[in-house]
Structure formats: C-alpha cells, structure tokens
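Researcher: Let's run the pair from yesterday's discussion. Sequence first, then tokens, for each.
Model: Starting with the first of the pair.
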Amino acid sequence: MSSNELADEAVAAGAAWLDLEVANWVDLVNLAYLNMSNPEDCVYGQVFGLVAAFSHFDPQDSTIWDQEHGFNCGLDFGYEELEEAWTELIQARRSATR
C-alpha cells in the first residue's frame, strides 16, 4: 500500500470517529488554514480547539491512535499526505451535501 493510500485509510477512520463525536465537524474545518503539523490548524484542533488538541489524549496512548485516525503523521505517511487526504475527504463530503 502506498503512503497516500495509508493516509486515506487513516483519515477515513478519523472521519468516522468525528462523525460520532461532532455531527457538523466538516463545516468547522477551514481548509484555507488546514495545517496538519500545527495543533491549532489541524483537523482536530479546528474542530475541538487548541486546548483540546493538547489535552484530549493520554500521551502514553495517543500516538498510535492519532496515527490510525489521521490526526498525526506516522512512519508510513507524513503531514503532506494527511493534509491531502483530509482536504479530499472534506471537499467530497461538502460536494455531496450541496
């Protein structure tokens, strides 16, 4: 599997989790400011806020969960692939609702 495919898979898992947590999360993300390497401007930071981005997860357990859900880069994909995957998913969802 390519790094883009792995990022797409992780982002799909993150989107599914967000769907359960925040019904309108897609509308809360400003793609013009999306920067997955910045806790304030990443998807999680934009949806839940900067304080939540730093405090929501237990640091002992969060790294793998974050990567598996497309909120942080991993060994198999970087921030660039995550930003591309999140952007494509959000744009597709926004297009589907219009």
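Model: Moving on to the second of the pair.
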Amino acid sequence: MPPSPPAHQFEYLPLVLRERGPARFPSGGGDENPATVANKAGRSGHAGGLRSHTANVSAAWEVRQATRLQDGLPDICLLYTSPSPRD
C-alpha cells in the first residue's frame, strides 16, 4: 500500500506541474490514458498547446517578479540543479 500524502500539500504555492494517474513504465501494461492517445494522435496541436502554456507561465513569472520589485520585495531566486555530477 503506498504511503498516504502529507496533510499539507503547499496549496499556497502556484505550482505548474500537475500529475494524474499511476506511474507508467516503458514496458507497458494496462490501458493507455485516453489523453495520451489523443496527444499522440495530434502531436503538432499538443506541442503548440505546450508551447503556449509555457509562454503564459513565463509571462506570468515576469509580471510577478516586476510586481514584487514595485512592492519593495526581494527577487525570487531559482536554483537549477543538474542530475549529473560535476566533473
């Protein structure tokens, strides 16, 4: 039985990533999600939607940063990490 999710899900954070359904492994098994089937059938439309969503998220981030600066709040600093070790 999987562990239950934590009581607090950080509802106050405007997170972009959304996940639904069980994990899918390349070896398959079970029925494919209908949304996945539709996305594969209309790859260019799906790609355009992803591009549009990404642009909207980026624009909202820039507006939020500008608003923070106008309100005298500090910049939000994002740290990027690499999954591979440094040489």
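Researcher: Give me one sentence on the second I can quote.
Model: The CA atoms of residues 7 and 20 lie 18 Å apart.
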